[in-house]
Amino acid sequence: MKTGFYPGCSMKGSAREYSxxxxxxxxxxxxxxxxxxxxxxxxxxxxxxxxTDLALALPARILAAAEKDGMNEVLVPCxxxxxxxxxxxHELLDDEALRNKISGLVEADYQGTAKVVNIxxxxxxxxxxxxxxxxxxxHRVACYYGCLLVRPPGVVKFDRPEEPxxxxxxxxxxxxEPIDWAFKTECCGxxxxxxxxxxxAKLSGLILEDAVSRGAEAVIVACPMxxxxxxxxxPQIEKQVxxxxxxxxxxxxxALGLAMGIPARKLGLQxxxxxxxxxxxxxxx
Amino acid sequence: xxxxxxxxxxxxxxxxxxxxxxxxxxxxCYQCGKCSAxxxxxxxxxxxxxxxxxxxxxxxxxxxxEKALRSHTIWLCLTCEICYARCPMExxxxxxxxxxxHESLAQKKVNPKARGILAFHRAFxxxxxxxxxxxxxxxxxxxxxxxxxxxxDLLQAPWMxxxxxxxxxxxxxxxxxxxxxxxxxxxxxRENRP
Lengths: 285, 194
Fold this sequence. Notes:
The complex is a heterodimer of chains A (285) and B (194).
Chain A: E1 3-5, H1 16-29, H2 44-50, H3 52-68, E2 73-75, H4 79-94, H5 96-106, E3 115-117, H6 119-124, E4 140-143, H7 153-156, H8 166-173, E5 177-178, H9 197-213, E6 218-221, H10 224-232, H11 234-241, E7 249-251, H12 252-259
Parallel strand pairs in A: 1-2, 2-3, 4-5, 4-6, 6-7
Chain B: H1 14-22, H2 34-38, H3 49-57, H4 62-69, H5 73-76, H6 82-86, H7 93-106, H8 115-131, H9 136-147, H10 156-162, H11 176-192
Helix pairs in contact in B: 8-9, 8-11
């Protein structure tokens, strides 16, 4: 069983702490995560907005490269990349003529043997994760899934589209207390971070206000876009809602890393816009 | 109920072309409005998603198809997939939005309010075309040039650099020639489309 790693562009730049924390955790767990050879960008929102063939070709080249390298599955921690790769695999396996056409475009014989796996699935597949927890992450957390981990359900076939539980279960294993809240799968504004920051501030503001009002101490995310909008866009969000919001936004791999006793710096916590200051406490449940 | 002034291509109205490109039959929509209720940006749109579906259903009237293609909605759609997940008829509305965007682009009917969003997408794809990956700083500069929003986020850059999130040089993949060929082939098929 060979698991490849597709970081995607964000994890090499604005979301580098997601990559740092994932690799730190993987090292500790003794899991190797070789990158997909010579991977390219998945095309993100831009490609499918402009051209369907391009939106399928870019992920197909990545998946074909993973396949050629003998990878049985590809871990795609960015929820947006995960969506594009999952949609492509789904559509190409569903339609042989389309598969042949796209294979021709990318000069590879794409078969679809490499499965696409998200970060929650990968972490949930590690047996006895609890046994690795040295310092329980004893905080009330709002698990924020965002859009693309659970939707469209017919494509990702992962958890349930409304009120998902998989991330909550993982956080419980880390010693956290996940809260019930209303914005688990609402959109943060995603790819509009630069082009329509005003809309991102509005949508992200609603998400953070709900998490805070229900007593969460941190928002846990599994997507660089969600993190960018909820953390780096905090000044714009605060302007939008007219008040200060201090709640930190933490990648699931950072929370796990802290629970495993990995130093905060190795998890890239110093790179956040909103300081990660969590007062030590014991979870009530 | 077709008039002589129909805007048709290959004798097909817009909903037929959407069906051909996406396999989605908009006639199946019975206007329950669940998509518009769940859409995070419905309040910002000129037509919420269910109304776009209705415009397509009335697409025999050319002015209806025209409204859909010139709408701000199709560019505001975030592809968050909430409409599709909740649609009782399992209509893939985001896919319809993609098809409408492509047609709106091809017919040069992009809503003027969506220029910034489109400039961002184009800058993004240019970065991918030449380096194989997204070069965040290069893309943002390209976007500023295209959109004219020069001052936006200017103060963000020093902070990003300080925390090590901003790279000054792009990461480039080895097989950039293949990327070039893929983009060229796709541009060619797009030209040959009716």
